[in-house]
Design brief:
three-stranded antiparallel β-sheet, 2 domains, 345 residues, 12% strand, Butyryl-CoA Dehydrogenase, subunit A, domain 3
């Protein structure tokens, strides 16, 4: 198979190789230090390569790539420890603007939903975005506006790995809103949730790879750590949980893509993916740090880049408990007669 042919996940291998090369080069020259901010030079380079709006339609200025390509882009960034609002900009904010027919310029964006007081908390990358797609409720409808950052009040914050998670406040009466349907907002919620599941899965895979590499190379009492049964159990549990989370996530993504995010059981599948990814994180983080011992807790070692990331992302766009309850509600609603079909359809 040539490098230009798609692999089994539908991702062009040449495109995937380019993504990995770009992020690897960036990470080599820009090691992490201090608070996480959107690197405008990296953003410009990604934009020139057509990666910033990878999944947007060509008619709206995007690259016309698939969701599988976009998922590979997010995963590649995670693998190399590169933080950027690629998902928030492309498959969330710009996707919503494209769906409502709004013009889309080159500004970097994120998206948020305001509460009744006109405030949204823990908004990803708001303080480093140039525009924020703001959603709010007015009477019985929802409105959306593509607002400049300067038209909003932003209080900086961060998540566990230092990514911007800010508080956004707005005077909605001053915003020119366009009506958005409940159906689009439901799709946005599911897309947001699945993005984090994809990122968590990529982090879990890296925790597993680092753990296998470390325990195979580190010796104790004259033999590699990987030869000890207790260590084997730790690694096997990480592998099993990571595989379960990825299987659930890829099932949800395949259903979403095939149905244009409209399948009747998609909410259940996304909830399962988020639940599996959330619980897998607990196992992978605990076992990974046990396998590494003291060195895994140091700032110099890369393990924490993935363990802390997985812990942060699993709680965004819905906590583990929230998604567990969504799975439970769907199962109870299906009843004994419909549960098997809910799981297998």
């Amino acid at each position: 198979m040539s490098t230009s042919e798609p692999n089994t996940r539908g991702v062009d291998r040449g495109l995937a190789d380019m993504m990995n090369a770009v992020f690897a080069d960036y990470r080599e020259t820009q090691p992490p230090s201090g608070p996480v901010r959107r690197d405008t030079e990296l953003w410009s380079s990604l934009d020139q390569l057509g990666l910033v709006r990878l999944s947007g339609s060509e008619e709206a200025g995007g690259s016309g790539a698939s969701w599988y390509d976009a998922a590979e882009l997010f995963s590649a960034a995670v693998r190399h420890g590169v933080r950027a609002p690629l998902a928030e900009h492309d498959v969330l904010a710009c996707w919503l603007l494209e769906k409502i027919g709004a013009p889309i310029d080159a500004a970097a964006r994120t998206v948020c939903t305001l509460d009744a007081s006109g405030t949204a908390t823990a908004v990803p990358w708001a303080s480093t975005a140039e525009k924020i797609v703001v959603i709010w409720r007015h009477d019985d409808i929802h409105l959306v506006a593509d607002a400049a950052q300067t038209d909003l009040r932003i209080t900086p914050g961060s998540n566990l790995i230092g990514e911007p998670r800010d508080t956004v406040s707005a005077e909605v009466s001053a915003l020119a809103g366009v009506t958005v349907t409940e159906q689009l907002l439901t799709k946005l919620r599911l897309r947001s949730a699945l993005v984090r599941s994809i990122q968590v899965c990529a982090a879990l895979d890296e925790i597993l790879e680092l753990s296998v590499e470390h325990t195979g190379a580190r010796t104790q009492f004259g033999r590699p750590l990987s030869k000890f049964q207790a260590i084997q159990h730790l690694i096997a549990d990480i592998a099993a949980e990571a595989a379960l989370a990825r299987a659930a996530t890829e099932t949800a993504l395949a259903t979403a893509v095939a149905s244009d995010w409209s399948a009747p059981n998609l909410g259940f599948l996304v909830a399962v993916a988020r639940s599996c990814a959330g619980h897998a994180t607990s196992v992978a983080v605990r076992n990974g740090h046990q396998a590494f011992g003291a060195i895994g807790t140091t700032i110099e070692h890369r393990l924490h880049e993935y363990t802390r990331a997985a812990l942060a992302w699993r709680s965004e766009f819905g906590s583990v408990r929230y998604w567990d309850e969504e799975v439970t509600r769907a199962a109870l609603a299906a009843g004994a007669a419909g549960l098997w079909r809910l799981i297998t359809d």
